[in-house]
Each structure stands twice: as structure tokens, then as C-alpha cells.
Design brief:
about 15% strand, single chain, about 475 residues, alpha+beta, 5-stranded antiparallel sheet
């Protein structure tokens, strides 16, 4: 099976991604230095070549002016041309008829170009041109008398070549030194990362979250270390909270489970002996079965509340724009179905919020259930909902004895139950769930004493604009659920 052609260009990328950060930094440093040396060599070579060419041209012009002055005095055919010394500049005289004169022993110059002939004919004063032959001559032609004189110089690239060879050696040394420096800098700069990695590996292997990573380095590394220390602290808090939840749950489950086990064992023992009917009259048996049913219901409620509390988030449902009045009415209806003796008086006004319906309904239900435990049979639980500024305010109060000042700071703690509440059914989780739901919705919940001397629990949630069009209800609508 042939490999798709589109995967081939990805190979360098995959190779690069597989390299360590040290290797990447080393390669980047060496490449940066190599590119810098190459660019510097190109610029310096161009500057050096321009400077050498300019110097050579100036020298050719000066020599041509001297030869042209001699030719003016002695004539083109009579001007003295010293023998060629074996090196240096080359000269040539162009006569009016197109013939040329050169010093004896001088190497042959390239043929006179058409442009040089035009200078000899008086079409222009001078000409600087380069010859593309193997020798690479630079020729300057200057008008003199009825002809012209030429001075030429072999283009010498040896200085440029020597300079390039020297720059090559320097570049190689710089690249090697840059790679070494990059490796050293990477090793030194990444030392805190190595210690951070070792600490993270140690935490992963030992599951110990108590040791913080030393705060060292600077800039991004320091922020990374602090972020990981904050993460470890959050994990420690989460583990501590889980341990406390497990311990509290075990403690709270112990009492109803023990009572349930004793009652069931009693029924089983009497049934095995065949003395169930004689030992337990119908009235006692009914009372015992009712106790078993109540204990099972209490365990079911406790398990549900523990599940909600242990999840860590409010719920998996999405946030939506909803009328909190509908949530309150639904929660009151559920409270009435669960406890037929409870009486709830509603005074609700439509207030829109952004939240999770099921979570908010559970919180309102817990508030009503808590108030229902304390309200006398002839006194309803009062639930009021109104808009107050930019907040939706929900108040639930009862006509009970109220909450002691000493219990107020801990009333929303998990499993906390005041001394007067320990004889009543409940797990001590209801108000804790209320606070968690309210906090997750950006609100706050407080407790105070109501006008009926009972407990007043108030929830403030951020209000939202109602959807349009929305018919406004009549303020002060009073609804009772009985």
C-alpha cells in the first residue's frame, strides 16, 4: 500500500517536534549565528569588491590622463611606450586609422570594442568597461588627439577569495561556538524546568502532594512554578475535602445503618423462632416497620445528597435564561408531595435569572424542607421572591425557634446540625448544598431572624433581563400551596 504523497512534507516537522528543547535551542542558536555570518560575509564582500573596483578605476583614470598628455605632446605615433615590466597595468594607443600600438613584451589585450572605437573617433570622451574574457580585464579608454589611449588592469579576485576563506573559517568557529553557547545556555536556563519535571514525576510516583516546588528562576519559569504550586495546593485541598467527606459520610451513615441493622436482625431472629406474632403485637410491628421504612428513606436521602455534594460541580445541565418564580413554585409543589403536612405560602413575582433549573430547584427545595422541620403545624412556611435592584431576592422563613447566634457561622457547613436539630430527621447536608448552588450562580445566601422569631434564609442571585416580548405579571401576586 503506497503512502499518501501529502505526508512526506511532514517528516521534518515530526523530526523537529521529537527533539528535546535543548536540542532545539542549540540548533536555533547555531542556525542564527550561521545566517548572521553568511549575511555579514555577503555584505562585506560586496563592500570590499566595490571599494577595490573604485580604487582600480581611479588608478586607471589617473594613468590614462598621464598617457594622454604625453600623446598630445609627442603625437599618437611618436609617444614613447616603455617596455612591459612583467606585471602591472597594460597600455594601448588607438591610432586614427584604427591601428593600435602596445609596448614590447606586453600581453595581448582583447580586441578594441565598438564603444572604444567610438571614443577614438570622438563620439565620446572616455569609457570604462569590463571584459568578459578569461583574464577579466578592466579597460579605461580616453580620447587623445585624433585617437585614444587605453589603460587596462587584470581583475584580481584574490583579495575577495582570501577574505571569503577567512570568513568561512570564522563562520565555522562562530557556528561551533554558538552551538556550544546555546547548549550551555539551554542547560542553565532549563535547569529549573528539569527540577520542576523531577518534582512532578516524584509527585506522580509517590502521590505525595505536600512538598512544594522551590520558587526559583524568573519571568515565565517563576510563573510556571507558582502555577504548579497553586495546582498542588488545590489538589491537596481537594484530597482533604474528599477525605473529610468520606469520614463525615461514614459517621453519618453509621447511625441509621446501625439502627436499621438492629431492627432487621430483631425481625429475622423473631421470625426464625416463630415468635414474631407473639413477641411483637401488630401495633409494635407496624411501628417497627415504619421505623425501618423511615431509616431506609433517610439513607436514600443521605446517599442522594452525598452524591450531589461529592460531584464537585452543580450539575451537568446547561445554563439557561429562566423565570425563578417557576422554579420556586415547582420546588414548593415537590415539598408538598414529599411531606403532606407541610404548608407553604408563596408570594412570588416573576424575576428572570441565568442558571441551571434543576440545581436551583434543589436548592429551593432544601430551603423549604429545612423551614418545614421547624415551623409549627399551624404556621406555614413563607416563601417570598422579588426583584431588588439588580438582584433576585428569595426569602424563606419559618415560625420556629430560630437559629442561635453560636450556630449561625456553621449553619452552612456540611453535616453540621445544631443541638436542637439532632433529634429531627436530616443529614446536615441540605443547607450546604444550597450554599454551593448559590455560589456557583454568583449569588450569596445569608441567615437572619424573621419577623415571626424564626429563621430567615435569604438568597440573592444576579437578575437577568427577561426575553422579549414578556408579559409583566401583576406585582404582589399571592399564591398558596396547601
Amino acid at each position: 500500500m503506497s503512502r499518501p504523497a501529502g505526508r512526506e512534507p511532514r517528516r521534518p516537522t515530526r523530526w523537529w517536534r521529537r527533539r528535546s528543547l535543548r536540542t532545539r535551542l542549540t540548533v536555533i542558536a547555531a542556525t542564527a549565528i550561521a545566517v548572521s555570518v553568511f549575511v555579514g560575509f555577503q555584505v562585506a564582500s560586496e563592500l570590499m569588491d566595490w571599494e577595490l573596483r573604485d580604487t582600480t578605476e581611479n588608478q586607471l583614470r589617473a594613468d590614462s590622463r598621464v598617457l594622454a598628455a604625453n600623446a598630445q605632446r609627442a603625437g599618437l605615433t611618436q609617444v614613447q611606450l616603455p617596455p612591459y615590466p612583467g606585471s602591472g597595468r597594460l597600455v594601448r594607443v588607438i591610432l586614427p586609422d584604427g591601428a593600435t600600438r602596445t609596448p614590447s613584451g606586453q600581453p595581448a589585450l582583447p580586441p578594441v570594442s565598438e564603444h572604444a572605437e567610438r571614443v577614438a573617433q570622438g563620439a565620446s570622451a572616455d569609457l570604462m568597461e569590463s571584459n568578459d574574457s578569461d583574464e577579466g580585464y578592466l579597460v579605461y579608454t580616453l580620447r587623445a588627439g585624433d585617437g585614444a589611449v587605453q589603460v587596462a588592469q587584470v581583475a584580481d579576485d584574490s583579495p575577495i577569495n582570501q577574505f571569503g576563506f577567512g570568513m568561512l573559517l570564522i563562520g565555522l568557529l562562530c557556528v561551533a561556538g554558538g552551538a556550544l553557547v546555546g547548549r550551555t545556555v539551554a542547560r542553565t536556563g532549563l535547569a529549573p524546568i528539569d527540577r520542576l519535571t523531577a518534582a512532578a514525576v516524584r509527585v506522580a510516583h509517590t502521590r505525595e502532594l505536600d512538598a512544594d516546588i522551590p520558587d526559583e528562576g524568573g519571568g515565565e519559569i517563576r510563573r510556571l512554578i507558582r502555577s504548579i504550586n497553586d495546582m498542588l495546593a488545590a489538589l491537596r485541598d481537594s484530597r482533604r475535602a474528599q477525605r473529610l467527606l468520606a469520614e463525615d459520610a461514614a459517621h453519618e451513615l453509621k447511625t441509621p445503618l446501625t439502627s436499621l441493622r438492629l431492627n432487621v436482625e430483631l425481625l429475622i431472629r423473631l421470625d426464625r423462632r416463630g415468635t414474631l406474632d407473639s413477641a411483637l403485637p401488630a401495633e409494635s410491628r407496624t411501628r417497627l416497620l415504619n421505623d425501618v421504612g423511615a431509616q431506609v428513606a433517610e439513607l436514600s436521602t443521605l446517599a442522594a445528597e452525598l452524591t450531589d455534594l461529592a460531584r464537585g460541580d452543580v450539575s451537568d445541565e446547561n445554563t439557561e435564561l429562566l423565570d425563578l418564580a417557576d422554579v420556586v413554585v415547582a420546588a414548593a409543589t415537590r415539598a408538598r408531595s414529599r411531606v403532606p403536612d407541610i404548608e407553604v405560602a408563596l408570594d412570588v413575582t416573576s424575576v428572570w435569572v441565568s442558571g441551571r433549573p434543576a440545581a436551583l430547584q434543589r436548592a429551593v427545595l432544601n430551603l423549604i424542607d429545612n423551614a418545614g422541620k421547624w415551623s409549627p403545624a399551624d404556621q406555614p412556611v413563607q416563601v417570598r421572591l422579588r426583584a431588588e435592584g439588580t438582584s433576585a431576592v428569595l426569602e424563606v422563613d419559618d415560625a420556629g425557634p430560630g437559629i442561635d447566634a453560636a450556630d449561625v457561622p456553621r449553619v452552612f457547613d456540611r453535616f453540621y446540625r445544631a443541638a436542637g436539630a439532632r433529634a429531627l430527621p436530616g443529614s446536615g447536608l441540605g443547607l450546604s448544598i444550597v450554599r454551593r448552588v448559590v455560589d456557583a450562580h454568583g449569588g450569596r445566601v445569608t441567615v437572619a431572624r424573621s419577623e415571626r422569631s424564626g429563621a430567615l434564609l435569604r438568597v440573592d442571585l444576579p437578575a437577568a433581563d427577561p426575553p422579549d416580548p414578556f408579559p409583566r405579571p401583576t406585582p404582589g401576586e399571592d399564591t398558596a400551596v396547601r
